[in-house]
Each structure stands twice: as C-alpha cells, then as structure tokens.
Design brief:
Order of helices and strands: HEHEHEHEHHHEHHEH
Number of helices: 10
CATH architecture: 3-Layer(aba) Sandwich
Radius of gyration: 18 Å
Strand order of the largest sheet: 2-1-3-4-5-6
CATH class: Alpha Beta
Shape: globular
CATH topology: Rossmann fold
Low-confidence stretches: 1-16
Strand content: 5-15%
Largest sheet: 6 strands, parallel
Structural class: alpha/beta
Number of domains: 1
CATH superfamily: Alpha/Beta hydrolase fold, catalytic domain
Helix content: 25-40%
Length: about 240
C-alpha cells in the first residue's frame, strides 16, 4: 500500500508538469549555442524557459559560417572568459552543429566547474545531407569552412573532439518538414540528421521526441527534458508536451 501511494504521488506530480518535480536552479550558468547559419534568436525560447527555472543563461552569438570548429571554439573561449565571471557550475545546451562546437570547446578549454551538457539534434556522426551537398559551390559558400566538417567522414575533425567523460544528454527528433532531405537520410531522422547520427559513445542518456530539426529547441517537451537533465543527469520518459 505504501509503495502504491508513493507511485501515485510521483505520477500525480509528473502529470502536473516539470515545475513541480524539478527544483529551481540557484543560478548556475547555462551557455546556449545555436546551429550553423542561425542566430541566438533561434534559441531565445529555450533561454527564456531555462531562466524561469532559475538559470543564468548566456545565449551566445558566434560567426558560425565564417570559421571552422577549431577557430570557433577559440572565439567561444574568449567570449566566455569575459562573461563567466562568477564561480558557479557551467552547463551547456546546444542545437545541431552547436553540439560539435561544445565538444571541441570542452576538449580544449574545459572549465573546472563544468556541469552538464545537453545536445539537441547534434550531427555527432556527421550528416548525410552534408555528404550530398559537399561539392556544391553554393552550399560551401553559404555555410563556410564548417560545412566541410559536417560530413560523415570525420577524419578532418576527429582529433578535435576528445572523449566524452562528462554528463551528456542527447535529445533527437523523429519528425520532418523536409521530405527531400529525409529521402536522402537512412532510417529515422528529423529532416536534417538521422537519429543514429545523434548518438555518441560515452553519453549519459539519449531520448527521441516528436520534433523536427529546425524547431526542436522551441519544443516544450525538449525544454522540459533539458531542465530535468540539468537537475538529475538523466531524462524522464514520463514527461509530456503539455
């Protein structure tokens, strides 16, 4: 009877929403990074949500189409050296190529007070779309040096990443608004990246939600799962999009 009541109690508060089961942060930093050819505006909804959960967010802008990952990580390091002024945990939340940038940054510039890392739809094993377009001059011009680093053959970048020996949660999507791209990608995908490509050896947890690549950072369930992982180091499969 006691176990049953406890189970019902947990279920009840799960259904009420994340604010009842996740304690608010005491102001930890969360550095937020968007994907290639996007801007911090694309991550504003995620940043706003995490701020309501008590986090001190840094929704970083960086020149994603002007440099390769190594140079972008240095730019990121210089920017954060100025903005991370308090001695408190530093978490990272990224979308798409932003996840690759976080991996490069943590391999070379890891902060001593590193917290947890969440990646949304990261092409950790490359993108078949990048493979398909890699010789297209318009694609190469528009996306810049990083375009070559998104292909599935990772010989150019594998030495930049290092091992994942930190708490890492990955959220993948399984919906698409780009049927042409999805026709190129094998197996389930989000319109840009396959679910299999998001996975990474050493990750702490992985979850698939009904979301597209483009809008996954605005997805309420993705935001709830992000906040949950930041608190507990794993995702909660019972969370809903309500």
């Amino acid at each position: 009877m006691r176990f049953t009541l406890l189970a019902l109690f947990v279920l009840f508060f799960t259904l009420l929403g994340i604010s009842t089961i996740v304690e608010k942060s005491s102001g930890d930093y969360v550095v937020i990074l968007y994907g290639i050819a996007r801007s911090s505006d694309n991550m504003r909804s995620m940043a706003d949500f995490l701020e309501t959960q008590g986090y001190d967010t840094i929704n970083l802008d960086y020149p994603s189409t002007k440099y390769g990952l190594k140079d972008l990580a240095k730019i990121m390091h210089n920017e954060l050296a100025v903005r991370l002024v308090e001695d408190k945990p530093i978490h990272f939340v990224s979308h798409s190529m932003g996840g690759l940038l976080v991996r490069v940054y943590l391999n070379k510039y890891r902060p001593k007070n590193l917290g947890k890392t969440i990646m949304l739809a990261p092409p950790n094993n490359g993108s078949e779309i990048a493979d398909f377009l890699k010789n297209n001059q318009i694609y190469r011009t528009y996306y810049g040096p990083a375009a070559e680093e998104l292909i599935t053959n990772q010989d150019l970048v594998k030495n930049l990443f290092g091992e994942v020996d930190y708490p890492l949660g990955i959220i993948a999507g399984n919906r698409t608004i780009d049927p042409l791209s999805s026709a190129i990608i094998p197996n389930e995908d989000d319109g840009k990246v396959s679910i299999n490509s998001t996975k990474l050896e050493g990750m702490s947890d992985h979850i698939v939600i009904e979301a597209t690549h483009t809008f996954i950072a605005n997805n309420k369930l993705a935001q709830k799962q992000t906040a949950y992982f930041l608190q507990y180091g794993h995702f909660l499969k019972e969370l809903t999009n309500e």
